[in-house]
């Protein structure tokens, strides 16, 4: 790609130096003799932000000229990772910037290190949203990402005595050079109160919502730049009190009450909820959802009307993608805006609404499907509850006409009235959308046969699949520069905008000298990670060992504890003098546990206890090392994936909707050991069975096992090796004699084992033995590693976004460069 003049790409060293110093002097008021590293970081970020905004403005002009159909991506979470390095890459000025700073005796890497990432998400879902913004910008999709500007993001994880401790994330402490506040883009959001129903002079029903409080949401814009391409914005809403509302009228006595009220209303965007906490009664969470949805819809409608258009064709101009059910109250809110505020007839409003929204489901876990109590929702959003009831009654009438059974009708209802009545948000999102998609082929199939089966039978054409993808520029070009350079030297730069071009490397897979270069790069990445791990944990790994890595949120279905059972089996083999076939291995874990998730927190303690035992035992620590790397984040991820030899993707089949870490590992040349779950299935298809270590039950076998009545204790009785490992958990040897510490894990596995660890244990051990055997042939390993990378084309988020454009959004892309 070549750039038009003035496009903001290909800046010269002098231009960069000049802008940087101007930002330092006039933007921050600092001079080099007193400037801190953070000042240098802020100055460079401010300079880069200007160039990114330039691309954004140019894109806007282009989109306006083309009058294109646009996309609003609604997500309660984003995990963008550090912006600076990525923006330099996308402006193609990394090298020039490095030289410009070197002229000033400054080190770019040290400056990049300063950035604190916005942790505005929990994990996969939030990171996916950010990968999608990257690809929408790169491909030129006229789009905007809406979300919440949490003042405190996901907690920082520290370890205390081997247990997780949570520390609040003050990510805005040193300021945020990437965002621009837009005080003129602000909307009022109502809560509570009651509704009035009246007939107007034309005998038309008019509903009026009289709220009991109102708050303001103000836009904060962060530009997101595509690769040598367009810029889009991520628009995050921050809550503030509406001062005139309370302050003006009150006398001194009420002043403090008014201040309190102001503070209470500003708490809406204070903090991100960690997931899988028990949501019931979490009123603030529902307020967050409605708050950002309401601001976003008002903003989109403002843009639509600004262009002189009618609301009747809103859906022809806008697609709104719901990232899970978190923003699904939008279905009721758009109906309210169209019917109550713009006086549209119900049927027409419903037509517009259903053609506007599309819904992405990210989970089949029954406990994770969102429900809101009717009582709570009615108190907070009385008009929305009425609208949901109206949608539901029309929908159920339709089903009755089509002779659905009462049983089916009650299963499909938006209201669950077994027990405390609640709203099934996935049903609301499904009924209110024209497309519903899962996030991998397997997950989309299961969605249709399980959670949304009745709906899939009613509307088969509504259901589709879009397999997830990852921002390969961030997760390969930026985080693994060694490998990226080697690839570019061999096949040029095409892969940066078309990942499937990596197939052009095929002819090198068997080339011994290429394999050697490949291995050297991996080794250097492992050395870097080794240094970082030593600095953070005090544990020194040996980079010549196999790096076997399990990083993701801690959850029983992801089975971190299955990995622990394997490690203990190796430990016991070594202790019993039967460990000669074991390849020296460093096991690296990382991931946060939800603060209220008892088992997940105990699994972290188990990992750190196993690490202490093994790392301090000279009989085994030449062959095995174990480390828990605290506070896993995008920033850490960028150092971890490039250093991995083996990627652990060992969830129970049927539980991981897709996974995206699995893709990032393979993209960086790790081999996978995994189950047939989520996108693992498609990864294995792409890289070839021979280059993937498969184990465990299939989804169907899991279902059969459970149906037949599963008795984990019987497996324990019959497998001597497993029994020895299990009993070791409660021997006290991991816990200074305390035999009770890991009893909850032990009991859970022997009595219920809901995620079938014991059932899959033997198969996992055998697959791991195969891993250790393969590792001994380093040429063979390198060859398989190469074959993994070159077959990753499908898993770029560019491909995912193209799929959304064609199948769901029906939008054409418009590139400015
Ligand atoms: C729920 C209640 C209260 C607060 C937060 C939550 C919540 C937040 C995030 C619940 C779930 C959340 O995310 C789920 C998630 O990350 N799912 C993952 O999505 C990825 C992207 O599609 C998939 O790759 C993973 O398989 C899936 O687990």
UniProtKB/TrEMBL annotation:
Q: Which reaction does it catalyse?
A: [(1->4)-alpha-D-glucosyl](n) + phosphate = [(1->4)-alpha-D-glucosyl](n-1) + alpha-D-glucose 1-phosphate
Q: Which residues are recorded as modified (N6-(pyridoxal phosphate)lysine)?
A: 664
InterPro entries to which the protein is assigned, alphabetical: Glycg_phsphrylas (IPR011833), Glyco_trans_35 (IPR000811), Pyridoxal_P_attach_site (IPR035090)
Would the keyword Transmembrane helix be found if you checked this record's keyword annotation? no
What GO terms fall under cellular component here?
A: cytoplasm
Gene Ontology molecular-function annotations: glycogen phosphorylase activity; pyridoxal phosphate binding
Enzyme Commission number, as recorded: 2.4.1.1
Q: Pfam families of this UniProt entry?
A: Phosphorylase
An example GO BP is: glycogen catabolic process
Needed cofactors: pyridoxal 5'-phosphate
* Keywords annotated in UniProt: Carbohydrate metabolism, Glycogen metabolism, Glycosyltransferase, Pyridoxal phosphate, Transferase
Q: Does the keyword Transferase apply?
A: yes
Q: What's the domain of life for this entry? A: Bacteria
Q: Which family does it belong to?
A: Belongs to the glycogen phosphorylase family.
Q: What does this protein do?
A: Allosteric enzyme that catalyzes the rate-limiting step in glycogen catabolism, the phosphorolytic cleavage of glycogen to produce glucose-1-phosphate, and plays a central role in maintaining cellular and organismal glucose homeostasis. Phosphorylase is an important allosteric enzyme in carbohydrate metabolism. Enzymes from different sources differ in their regulatory mechanisms and in their natural substrates. However, all known phosphorylases share catalytic and structural properties.
**What name appears for this protein in its UniProt entry?**
Alpha-1,4 glucan phosphorylase
Biological source species: Salinimicrobium catena
Q: What is the lineage of its organism?
A: Bacteria, Pseudomonadati, Bacteroidota, Flavobacteriia, Flavobacteriales
